[in-house]
């Protein structure tokens, strides 16, 4: 696992970092700034635009501090800022040393700033050495350092798991990552593998994964705690060839990330456990871990599979496999009647067409829960967007010769029909939410290196006090 970042010691000989917004008549330089530094900044053309850095000189040519532009104040409720982590660019561009925030302009969230700083420290160096930003931040006054570090730990875990290629992150490796998490936090783990999936009635997990180089399995973690039950289900397709409906190379290149749902639920569990929140709930994490591969025993287009719930499913595309493995896991979860049941999956290209890679949709029938989760995402720089379980489309997932169709034709409403399919297995006792995430940052941005990324974790975490009752 990538080493976790640290804050600088609060009593270190840190340098001041002044945060500046642009103004109508030039940068809104803070009042505490020395006159010579003001003159220097203006002479350098410093304007306070987002990401702009101006180092301040001291006696003898040393650096005495820096000005950093965080851009104009934005109201996330009406118009989110173009960069969600305004301070992250400073972490990436400041010279080595310890820095403290010398001011906090109106509208600046120091906790979010500190989190973005830690996210900017992430580099995936398992296979190639890379230079980690060397500027360290003194945790800003009033910021809960333990909470921010726990959030970073969950994000780092999710990124590491997604970034690791299938050669080192097959179903058995994903199981080991889950076992390591369980060992860190005293959780119980059980795994059902291979033919035992059939014996214990997980036929669709077995069907999808039986052609893989590693045996399919269902990973089940339970964390010690008392209170309402929260069950997280994450899609763990460690590589997806598309099966016999094989993907073209252009679509297969990123399929190491098809276990992004599993990575995100494990990352969320890591954060919950580090914060001690698992003690106040009964947290369960279920991960169906498979490879969707091609072999003589691969499941075929036209096959009819009988699910754990007893519903039959006609296979009209073997590349719509994620909903199949999730269905068996959701059916198991529903048998225990949790208070809240959440699935996370890199499920449909339709979601990316609708909202792009940076804004994952989620589905929820309960308006109060949906509002709480979307608000938590907005307030914590974890954007998500609600889409409907649109009842009139139910007929699209009902074929002629089976109860359900795993890949209805026509090309319309792919994200919605996939969510409707999953809802059939989630039961009626739990508040159910489904997140159709991308799990990948296609272009590097401040605080978000190119590669695997967490999506929806902080939205869920910060909404839990309201929705888990």
From TrEMBL:
Pfam family, one: Peptidase_M17_N_1
Hydrolase is among the record's keywords: yes
GO molecular function terms attached to this record: aminopeptidase activity; kinase activity
Keywords: Aminopeptidase, Hydrolase, Kinase, Manganese, Protease, Transferase
Domain Cytosol aminopeptidase: 317-324
Gene3D superfamilies registered for this protein in UniProt: Leucine Aminopeptidase, subunit E, domain 1, Zn peptidases
InterPro entries the UniProt entry points to: Leucine_aapep/pepB (IPR011356), Macro_dom-like (IPR043472), Peptidase_M17_C (IPR000819), Peptidase_M17_N_1 (IPR048816)
Family statement: Belongs to the peptidase M17 family.
Name of the protein this chain belongs to: Leucyl aminopeptidase family protein
Species assigned in the record: Paracoccus broussonetiae
